[in-house]
Amino acid sequence: MSTEVLGGVLGLALFVFGMRMLVRDEAPGMIAHSFRSARDAGYYHLLFGLALLIYVGGLHLNTAVAGQAAAVIAVLLVGIALVRFRPRGRGPTRKA
């Protein structure tokens, strides 16, 4: 299996997983504990999956400019996911 196919399959899986969380408004246990809400978890996974799909799709475009534009869009989507919908931290750690 080629790297592009694997990336596309993983991107589609993340996209569908995020969409499922948004539609059902519930997230699986460990994921629910990591995010402030099921909505945040859904958008986080959806945006990462969409970014991966756009990036892999951009690899197959004929012109370099279109491929670079796809890469920039993918990076912007990941940036939005990381800044707006990031998992919450565990808080400061205490040292003994």
Jot down its keywords.
96 residues, mainly alpha, elongated
N-to-C span: 48 Å
Poorly predicted ranges: none
**SS summary, helix count:** 4
- Please estimate the helix content: over 70%
As a percent range, the share of strand residues is under 5%
By helix and strand content, what is the structural category?
A: mainly alpha
Q: What is the general shape?
A: elongated
The radius of gyration is 16 Å
Mean of residue pLDDT values: 88
Total DSSP E strands = 0
Write down the secondary-structure element order: HHHH
* Main pleated sheet: none
Task: Walk me through this protein's architecture.
The protein is mainly α. The longest helix has 22 residues, at 3-24. It has helices spanning 3-24, 29-34, 38-58, 64-84. 27% of the residues are buried. It is elongated, with a radius of gyration of 16 Å. α1 (3-24) packs antiparallel against α3 (38-58) and α3 packs antiparallel against α4 (64-84). The mean pLDDT is 88. It has 4 helices and no strands. 73% of the residues lie in helices and 0% in strands. It starts with a helix and ends in a 12-residue tail after the last helix.
